[in-house]
Amino acid sequence: MKLTWQRQRIRPRHRFSTSQWGVDEKETLIVRVEHDGVVGLGEAVPSSLYGQSLESCEATLAQMAARLGDDPFALESILTRLGREFDSQRAALDGLDAALHDWVGRKLGVPVWKLLGLDQPRKRTTFTIGVADPDLTRVKIDEALAAGFDALKIKVGVESDHETLALVRAKFDGPLFLDANAAWTPEEARRQIPTLAQYRPTIIEQPLRREDWQQMKGLRDLGVAPIFADESCERPADVVRLHGYVDGVNIKFNKCGGIRPALRMVYLARELGMLTMLGCFVSSSLAIAPALTIASLVDYADLDGALLLAEDPFEGITRDGGVITLSDRPGLGVWPRGR
User: Fold this and answer.
1) Which of 16, 47, 88, 159 has the greatest number of CB atoms lying within 10 Å of its CB?
2) What would the pLDDT profile of 254-306 be if each residue is shown by its tens digit?
3) Could you tell me which residues come within 8 angstroms of residue 265 by beta carbon, excluding any fewer than 6 positions away?
4) Which of 296, 290, 317, 297 is CA-nearest to residue 306?
């Protein structure tokens, strides 16, 4: 197998900000596996939150290239072995995981979702309104509603939370997901969360710092909305650790390493009676497709990373209002735009 990669620059339509960071443009990595005349593609989306960077991903992929072997069908063996060796670089593992699944689907002429025994992916996604001043917030809300999105995710954890949420609720009465991105201390969260009840949140995501996960149990008891872990939940073992402390988990592929560990997290959470969400970072549709592939298995999807872009370099995911559907093409079902 031949493994190569290249950088891809993408730009959100508007600056995208949370309580912790903001981005006007970013780079991801397009990962390419070639074997027996077939090419599989994946996207690595590194995040400094998890000790990942473009440089660390590229260095990891360079080491992986000599360790792949010559059988792309040996997915479990390859990804388990490399997962043990490169556990700290799960964004790179995710890019490889996606490219290998894409290769297998293309080689066999079937979509990955069909290989996994799932229905064609069609799922409602939230659309995220990032932290912004009131004028830009109004623009973002109006654009989202005009596009037909019927579930919104609002980034909170800043001084303007109530002003933003009042603007949203003045225009929108549907499901509202609140994401604090680890903005509060336990004491701050116990003060802030009861004041959010007036906005009727569907869930409240990661109110506390990653290391304060045990304190989220007390926030559940406030009864305002189900509490979800995101930054505190990276891999399958974290689902078990968080059981009883949160109501649900947000599973992101660059945190866990790809389709296979994500499936384990979904099944674990379901067995433990926990709610599940699939999330993403700002990325192209190539990174969204693997998550959308398994979206029929989860309660909620926040897979708008490519919908936030000024221009998506890949196509194959269609949108009807707030519902996104993955194509039935072989592999991951997406391809470079215009090809």
Assistant:
1) 16
2) 999 999 999 999 999 999 999 999 999 999 999 999 999 999 999 999 999 99
3) 233, 235, 236, 239, 249, 251, 256, 276
4) 317
Residue 314: both structure tokens together: 């890949």
Element (H, E) at 155: strand 152-155
Phi, psi of 278 (to 5 degrees): -100, 130
Instruction: Take residue 301 and report the two structure tokens written for it.
Output: 């999807």
Is 115-336 a CATH 3.20.20.120 domain? yes
Nearest to 236 by CA among 281, 271, 287: 271
H helices present in 120-223, as ranges: 134-146, 161-171, 186-196, 216-220
Could you give the CA distance from residue 194 to residue 198 in angstroms, rounded to a whole number? 8
Residue 73's CB is within 10 A of a number of other CB atoms, namely 13
Indicate the pTM of the whole model: 0.94
The domain limits of the chain are 2-109, 115-336
Looking at residue 105, its amino acid is G
